[in-house]
Structure formats: structure tokens, C-alpha cells
Amino acid sequence: MEEVTIQPNCIPQPSLSTAYDIGKQIEAKQAEIDKLREDSGITKLEAEIHALDEAYAAIIKNCIANNTFEDGPLRLVAKGGPRRKIIPEAFHRAYPQMFFELANIPVTASENSLSEYYETACGMSKKEAKMKAKETITSLCEMVGKPRYELINLTE
Fold this sequence. Notes:
Elements: H1 16-40, H2 42-65, E1 70-71, E2 74-79, E3 83-86, H3 88-94, H4 96-102, H5 107-122, H6 126-139, E4 141-144, E5 148-153
Antiparallel strand pairs: 1-2, 2-5, 3-4
């Protein structure tokens, strides 16, 4: 195997033998990295972290299933949660004229456009139009995703 030296922003002449040599160099460097990881104990630490992470996730999942969100100063706090996702067929049936215009924008943007429509075309007040738009868009959505939880200590 011939050692191939690569300069920044320079691609060597395309040939299968050069590509093969570079591939072998990549394998050799990866083997060096793997040996260093093993010798330094990083691989063992990563395995321990993975096991601890799995145990942590299982406990949190179990606490959520049992509705245990408080334990002394500890709290499980929901971060994020379900999001609305427009059901295209339902939206198209309800608003065919707006469907293609709004098909590729976020739900909140669709809600804002529909709110403007209710204001201008239907003469609703801004507040009424916003409420009606949110209600309408929500009725044309499905909820996706689950909340993520963060464990916090109130004494820290």
C-alpha cells in the first residue's frame, strides 16, 4: 500500500488504486483509534455510560407510567410535548383554495394565514379570528410526538 498524502482542498487524481490505498489508510487509522480507545479505557467507560443511560431511561419511563413526578426535592418536568400535524386530506376538503398555498408551511403559519382570512373575508375581530383559526386548524390536525422529561433537583 502506497501512503497517499492529501493536501487541504486538493483531490488526488481519480484512480481505483489511489482510492484503494486511501481506503486502506482509513482502515489503519481507524484501527489505531480503536486501539487507543481500548488502551485508554474509553471503550469501557462508554459501555458503562451506555448501561447507566439505559437504567436511567428505564427508571424515568417507569416513573412516568406510574405518575410519579415528585420525590422530595426531585421533579420530572415535561419539556416540549405533542405537536399538531395537519391532516392534508382534511385541510384540502375544508379549504381547497388555500390548500396548495399552505401545504408546505408550518402549522402556526397556516393558522396565521387562516386568521388573516377570517379577519378580512369574514369581518371578524383580530381576537375572534385568531381563536377561530386555532380551533379550525386544530380540528384538521393530529397530535404527534411525546413530551420529553428532564429530572431536576429543586435544591441545586
